[in-house]
Structure formats: C-alpha cells, structure tokens
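Appendix B: complex inputs.
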Amino acid sequence: MNEEKKEVKLISELGEFGLIRRITGDIELNNESSVLGVGDDAAVIDCSQKQIVITSDLLTEGVHFDLTYTPLKHLGYKAAIVNFSDVYAMNAIPKQITVSIAISGKFSVNAIDELYKGIKLACKEYNVDLVGGDTSTSLTGLTIAITAIGEADKDKLTYRNGAKVNDLICVTGDLGSAYLGLLLLEREKKVFEVNPKMQPQLKGYDYILERHLKPEARKEIIEFFDKENIKPTAMIDISDGLSSEILHICQQSEVGCRLFEEKIPIDIVAGNMAEEFHMVSTTAALNGGEDYELLFTVSLNDYDKIKSNPLISIIGHITSKEEGRLLITEGEQEVELKAQGWNTMKK
Amino acid sequence: MNEEKKEVKLISELGEFGLIRRITGDIELNNESSVLGVGDDAAVIDCSQKQIVITSDLLTEGVHFDLTYTPLKHLGYKAAIVNFSDVYAMNAIPKQITVSIAISGKFSVNAIDELYKGIKLACKEYNVDLVGGDTSTSLTGLTIAITAIGEADKDKLTYRNGAKVNDLICVTGDLGSAYLGLLLLEREKKVFEVNPKMQPQLKGYDYILERHLKPEARKEIIEFFDKENIKPTAMIDISDGLSSEILHICQQSEVGCRLFEEKIPIDIVAGNMAEEFHMVSTTAALNGGEDYELLFTVSLNDYDKIKSNPLISIIGHITSKEEGRLLITEGEQEVELKAQGWNTMKK
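Resulting structure:
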C-alpha cells in the first residue's frame, strides 16, 4: 500500500552522498541550542544552563513494523515520536535527534523520501532539530536507529524512583488502542493474503489505527506540569504496556501499588474492537504496549490540579512494598500484576 | 572463529529484560557529567560550561563487518572507536555513548557478552561512559547503532570549514593499513571456503589485521593539541579514505589543495601487502578508508610544534579554490583528486 511508483530511481543509483544530500538538503535548525547540525563529524549542542537527557531506540523491519501495512511516512513519524516520548517521560523537552538508517539499495528513492518526510514532520510538530545520523546499506530489511536529546532544568527532571506511599497513580489519554489497532491490521493482512481481492475492513476504526500507525507524544502534559508547577514524583512512558511500566516504577521506587481496573481509560472504539476479538479491553491496556501515554505518580497535594485536566486519569495509588503490586479487578478481586509486556525476544 | 560454545544459552531464553540486566549489570559511570546512565527513559548529562557534540553510526552485518572472521569483542570495540574518532575529529572529548543493537534470538548469550566486552573495553580505555541504548531482535543479522556524546570548550571546536590558503595539511599515523588488512582477510576467507582444511596465512600481518579489526582513535593527538595550544583550522577523521576526506575539507572550506603522494605515510607491512596484491600502496591510503586517523589543517605558524610530533605527517598544503584539488604523484604528475571512498550503496 505504501509503494510509490512515480519515480523509479533506486537508492543504489543515488549513492551514499547523494542520499545524504537528498535527506539533509531541506533541514533547518530552529533551537537556539542547536549550534551545528549535519555536515561535520558530529553535531554541536549548546546547553549552558540545562541538563541534557539522551535516549536511543532502534526499530527493525519485521519485528517493530510491517511494511505491508505501514506507510513509510507514518513509520518515520512514529520512530521519532517514540524517542520524544522517552524524553517527555523525564519531564524534559526534546530538542535534537540523530537518525541512522540501514536500508536495502533496492528501496526506491521515493520510499526513503517518505520515511524522512515523516521524521521531519514529527520534528516540525514537536520543535525538534534533526542534527545528524548515518545512512548505510542493509542486506535485508530496513532498520531505523534514533537518538533524541532533550533538556530540562536540573530540579525538574523526573525519574522512575521517586514514587512515595499514598501518591496518586495517573495516566494520560487512553490505553490499549495502539495494540488493538495492530491486531486489526494483522487480521486484515491475513484476510488479504488469503484473498487479495478482498478490501481491508478498516472503516470506523480510524482512531485505533492512528494510535498504532501514527502515535503522538504527550508534549501538552509536560507543558501542563510546567504551567501548574507540578513535579511528578515518578514518571515513565507506556511503550510496553501499563503492567510492565507500573512495575518498573514500583521496583525502582521500592513501593507497592493498587491499580483499579475500572479506572483504566479505554476509548470506545478500542472497547468495541476488543469485544470483536473476544478480549477484555483492559488486557490490551495492561499488556498491549505502544500507547506512548505517560504514567506518573504525584503527591496527594497535587490532586486538585490534576483532577482538572481531562487528559489525566487517576487509576490507583502507591502503597508500601509489603502490600504488593495489585490490580483490583472490576469484580473487586485482588490480582498480582505481572509484566507480560512487549518481549519479542521470547518466542 | 568467534563462536564460543561453552554456554549454550540463547538470547531467546534470556528475554529482553534478562539481556538488558546482563549487559548493564557491571556498568560504572566515571565522568562527572554522567548524571544518570541506563535504567530510566533517558540518560542525563550535565554540561554546564561546555558545548556538546553528538555523532551516530550504524554498522550492519554483511555490509560493515563479516562475522566469519571478525571476533565479536573486536567488533564491539571497533563500533565504539568509530564514534569516538568522530568526536575527536571535532577537537572534542568523548564522554558518553548509547548503544542500540538488533540481534537474532539465535545468537548465543556468550556472543552478546563478547560484543559488549569489546564495547566496554573501548569505553574504559577512552574514559567514556555507556549511558543508554536499546536492545531489540532482528529477523536476520546483527545491527549496531551507537551515538557518542563529547564535550569541548566552545572556542576549541574544530569544524571542516576553516582551512585557509597556505595551511599545512597533516595526517596522523599511517594510512591504507586497515583496507589492506581487510583485503587479506577476504582473501583467506575465500581460500578457506574452497578448502576448509587450509589454515589462514595471517602470520607477520598482525599490524594490518589489527588496524582493520581493532582500530584505535587518536585521543593522544587531541591531548597534544591541547597541551601545545594548537587549534587546527579544519579537521576530519579518515573513515572513507584520504581522497574523500580532503575533498570534504576543500569543499566546506572553499579551497584547493596539493597533496604529495610521496609524503603519504604507509606502514611497511601495508606496503608489502599492497605489493602482494599488485596494488600501489597509496591507492589503499587514498581510497581504502577505515583508518580512523585524523586529517587536519593548521596554520604555517604551528609548523614548529607539529613537526616535533612523530605521529604527524605533513602531506601537503591548502591552495586557492581555483588551483584545484591535486595529488602530486611520485612521478611529479598532477592528478585531480577524486572521491572513490567507501560507497556501499553503489554496487
């Protein structure tokens, strides 16, 4: 679906320097701290008064994405967003990224243009500068490695280890949608493989498809914290599923938790989709992953500020380590939380 | 050759978190600026008084390395060194790296240990902290993406665009050895493929093999510049071959150059190897690449300081743009320099 055939030029015809020129020709640096971007051995960043956060992610074809139903522009957008999300999860602001790709020479130049269009769009929307990277061939599939650099005042940085007993556990947006979008795409792919004449049945599911294919990072929440002078006690972004992430916070903060299943925010489209798959929607939220929402804990003192924000749901509270890490189900049963999140290694 | 069979554990048995624990368990942060390393969403770097440089490289199996003759420990070492070299080429000091890998679950855990042993050894030798990264599966080969962060005083940073007419063109160490080491390994691999009973003939070639398999970055030159108060007018590291790199400097500085073939430093082992391959040794220097030496230009005023350093060869001088980019051959012919360096895309 994402193949464009207008131009038949192959990457192998462009060569490495041609490809780099093509990718970097229209890059502008907008952040004051971006002193130098691509074109030298390394980019240069000025960071006089701030601390720098840095995070790297690597996406490989067939493991993290399937090009049969992932438009390359969306893939580029998502690859950038995933890293911005990690920076926001430190209560920091992403400012620069480097993008390294390994790609087969058999890809069309248009394909690579689409990929970078998505990356550059994400940079524009989030006010991040693309300052460097590497382009390289691959004998097989596409690999994208991104490093994002963000900045924050020292005293605003939020780690995973600061959650305290009685803190509120909060989550932004809704959960499980990205995973259900993925299940839908996989289902329609199978149908298509059996009968290529069948049109994929995707109508009405835009929201969960977008959540999977073109997620956003929670910039507005970090801005809200800044405006309201809230500093979460711990924060993490939800890439592997709610269970896995809350366990990270509990482990690093040496605390327990009580999560209430009925409080977990699920979008109505996701709820319907889960029903079609005969799945409990909160299972998708707990174990699905790739939501790129923020999970954070705040002091009870911040309750009044938090409750006013429609993007934030309070889903539980922190307890002592001895009380365990519990999910209170809708049937009021106490279930121990387990990390069944993303683990492509174990198959 | 690099397969270790003592332990049969596969990466797929460890799972992602097990693998991360294994890799990160023994990491220590030694640089004051490394506030936080692995374990949160992003690493944290303090850079109060300095500017930050950042560089990323991506190595893919079958394109950048061949595991049939590359020990994984050396590969890890080299993957780190390549990035340190880029940082030094800015006249900056590498301080942190993030390492992202995509690897097949079929690799042994020992194999991954070896890879990280090499990365960690390089970090130790160069006083760099491993502060983050990503581990992920790959459906096919091994991919390594590294981002290095370095720091420098603002007024010491050296770009590619500062070379001036009459500046001396200098290079560190010797050139062409890494490429000839690669040719030797490729030759012995072919012999081995035809007759697996043949032992590879590598004796006496240690130097060029090491230059290919386990290169070093020119830390001591950057320290020398600092001590002698030399600031090169332009600098680049030699990853793609001397021709390609001097052309980068000429292009970005808008100047010409005269390089003297007889001045190009070639090691005696490399010279002998070139002869065996019926190749002019300077061809390996000009177009071979992967030497990770520094190519830089300095003002004539620095001549006295430079000439005292046995690691530095003066190989030519900068001219005006109109005079062209010339190699003066040993036969005193003027030949236009062309970039025939590394270009895996064009095949």
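The first strand of chain A starts at residue 34 and ends at 36.
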